Each structure stands twice: as C-alpha cells, then as structure tokens.
C-alpha cells in the first residue's frame, strides 16, 4: 500500500499532534555496518550479505538488546565491491557510553565485529534515517536533513536504514548516548548536533534515549521539562517500578525527582507508516504526578 502525499504518515502525525516522547527505538547496544546499498525494505536481511553472517549478527542483537543498522556516507555511493567497509559498535548504556570501530572485507570479518577489539572512535556520530523502501517519509524528509548536517559535520554524519517511528520523520540518532530526535527541519540539525557536542540535549525534538524503555523515556521528558536539566548526563535513572496494571513510578537522581505516569491507549484511526494501513489505537503516557 503506497501513501499519497496527503496520506503520508509524518503529515498525519503532525496534524494529530501526536507526542514524540517515548518512541525512541529500544537498544542498549548498536552495530552500524557500512553498506552502500541498495537497501531492501528489510535492510539487513535483503542487503545481499552472507545469510550466515546476518544470522550471527541477529543472534548478537537479541542477546545484548542491540540494534543493527546499515549506514552509508551522505551523497557517496561506492560499489559494493569497494572494500574494506567500516563497522561501528556502540555501547549506549548510561555510564558506559563508547564507540569502537574497525573494518571488514568479508563475512567472517563482519561477524567478528560484535566482539572485535577495534579501536575507540573519539567523536559522536549522527545517524539520519533515509530508508525510502521502508517508508516514503524517511526518504522525502531524511535526505535533505542528512545533506544539510553533512555539509557542516561530514565525518560524523551517516545516512542509515530504518530506525522506527517513521511517522516522526525525519529521525536522527546521536551516538553514543542513543538520543533519538524526530520532526527536525534541516535548519535545526546543525545547531542541535553542536549542542550535543557541547554536552547539552535539545529537548524540543527529543523522542527519548534508546537505552531506556518507553515509560522511562516519557518520565525523562517530563523531568527535563520540570527541572530545566539539559546536560546529556543529567537525570540518572535510579529505579523504575510498575505500581499497577497501567501505572509507573520512575525515580531519577542529579537532580533528584520522582515521576508518576499512567499508560493507556487513545484512538488513532490513521496509518503509522506509509506502507501500512490505519491502526485503531496508539499508546500514550499521562503524567500523574511530579515531585522535585
């Protein structure tokens, strides 16, 4: 099913005013695999890579709560025969943030990327989803954002395959922290990335941090809004408790605060991706209480 411009998922989400918070893709670890394309709808499986290597990478991701993403340089399309390619392995867990990198020329070297020592990559990375075969909005909105960001930060910026939450296109992930943003305009991207380099999180477009579950992502949003905390390491998660079938209690330190939420569903009646039909409801979290 192909969406017309008036039916595109990102336009529908904007019209509905759907909240972004709590929608970052879940991942405590990331593996970025350089691949010039083409990317099928299911990028890794339809990438033309060795099926055995794909299976081993998938097992690693399932074991460590990881996410595998294909990446490529903006506006550069080398041949698949141009080797070696680069991999990045990212630890996005709070307090463990690190990027390591290496190169691979064949399937055996690629499978070793999940445990190879590699070398420390000292600079943050920005991934922009441009995966048009998965969702039209990501291609239409993502490519201009990636081009604009790469003009200022060419070594840090990569186009990437599907991130999730296509209706919030264009989507961008900043690593190693896994901060995920949506609904950005190209003019916003460079300033947002520079603030991240300076240790500041821009909360205006923040969907959440990938290493946190959705309830914590939403609680983090409310805590940042209420306290004014903007540092990348502010609001350290200390405890998450499910206090009923639908209620959550999330405790942060630095600064100390407690957020109580209620999880629920609201009617949608619209598509959440350009390639699928409408869904009946979407998940939301209501703020019940905040204590600072």
Written overview of the protein:
The protein has 6 helices and 14 strands. The protein has a single domain (1-211), classed as Glutaredoxin (3-Layer(aba) Sandwich), CATH 3.40.30. The strands form 2 sheets. A 10-stranded mixed sheet has the order 5-4-3-1-2-7-6-8-9-10. A 4-stranded antiparallel sheet has the order 11-12-13-14. By secondary structure, the protein is α+β, with helices and mostly antiparallel strands. It starts with 8 loop residues before the first helix and ends with a strand. It is globular and about 55 Å long. The chain has helices spanning 9-16, 51-64, 107-111, 136-152, 186-197, 214-227; strands at 29-34, 66-72, 85-91, 98-104, 119-120, 125-129, 157-160, 171-175, 179-182, 206-209, 236-242, 247-253, 257-271, 278-291.
